[in-house]
């Protein structure tokens, strides 16, 4: 990871952020996804993030925090996420998920995402590249539910993330602690 991104990662107020944000934020910093969205735990979280992340556009809407590289994409994400009509594919693509995975979520509907995730987690091999079973604990190589156990796009994204994490520096404490937990979990793919 680039030094400036590593410094940004290490300045994050992790105690106030969901563990899963570590996965999303790393994917954003490594340019593997264009934006992130998560539910804020506290109101002042946004102010702290804005001070730290001056290179990104950030917004808080209805307890969701949105982060993107550009204001245009940020606005499109917020509009999409708050539509009353189905918007799973549009939102997923704006968040950088593979289009095939967005189409899968669109086909099952927003209200069935949690059920689909539980079914996927039951069938995916533990510690495989597509294993998202510990995403909420901050241990995953993806921040989305793959459309299948053989989703090539998701596999490539997870492999790219793992390779970038493996070659990143181990010198900064908060990042290295998380990085080492991630690599330990996926040690079958550790070179």
- Widest β-sheet, arrangement of strands: 1-3-2
Number of helices: 9
User: What is the beta-strand fraction?
Assistant: 5-15%
Distance between the termini: 17 Å
Calculate the mean pLDDT score and round it: 89
H/E element sequence: HHEHEEHHHHHH
Shape: globular
Structural class: mainly alpha
What is the helix fraction of residues, given as a range?
A: 40-55%
Largest sheet: 3 strands, antiparallel
Radius of gyration: 16 Å
Unreliable stretches, pLDDT < 50, 5 or more residues?
none
As for the number of domains, it is 1
DSSP summary, beta strand count? 3
In short:
The chain is mainly alpha-helical and 191 residues long. It has helices at residues 3-11, 21-29, 45-52, 71-81, 88-94, 99-108, 113-123, 152-167, 173-185, and strands at residues 35-39, 57-61, 64-68. The chain has one domain.
Per-chain topology:
Blueprint: H1 3-11, H2 21-29, E1 35-39, H3 45-52, E2 57-61, E3 64-68, H4 71-81, H5 88-94, H6 99-108, H7 113-123, H8 152-167, H9 173-185
Antiparallel strand pairs: 1-3, 2-3
Helix pairs in contact: 4-5, 5-6
Defining traits:
191 residues; mainly alpha; three-stranded antiparallel β-sheet; 9 helices; globular
Describe the protein's architecture and organization:
With 191 residues, this protein is mostly helical. A 3-stranded antiparallel sheet has the order 1-3-2, sandwiched between helices. β2 and β3 form a beta hairpin. The protein is globular, with a radius of gyration of 16 Å. The model has no long low-confidence stretch (mean pLDDT 89).
């Amino acid at each position: 990871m680039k030094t400036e991104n590593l410094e940004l990662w290490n300045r994050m107020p992790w105690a106030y952020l969901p563990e899963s944000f570590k996965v999303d934020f790393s994917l954003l910093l490594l340019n593997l996804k264009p934006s992130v969205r998560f539910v804020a735990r506290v109101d002042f979280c946004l102010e702290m993030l804005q001070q730290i992340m001056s290179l990104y556009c950030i917004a808080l809407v209805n307890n969701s925090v949105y982060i993107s590289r550009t204001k245009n994409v940020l606005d499109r994400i917020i509009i999409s996420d708050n539509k009353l009509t189905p918007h799973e594919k549009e939102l997923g693509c704006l968040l950088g998920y593979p289009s095939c995975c967005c189409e899968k979520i669109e086909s099952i509907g927003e209200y069935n995402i949690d059920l689909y995730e539980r079914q996927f987690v039951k069938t995916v091999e533990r510690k495989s590249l597509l294993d998202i079973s510990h995403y909420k604990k901050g241990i995953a190589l993806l921040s989305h539910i793959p459309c299948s156990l053989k989703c090539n796009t998701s596999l490539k994204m997870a492999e790219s993330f793992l390779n970038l994490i493996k070659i990143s520096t181990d010198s900064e404490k908060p990042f290295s602690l998380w990085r080492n937990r991630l690599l330990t979990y996926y040690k079958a793919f550790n070179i």
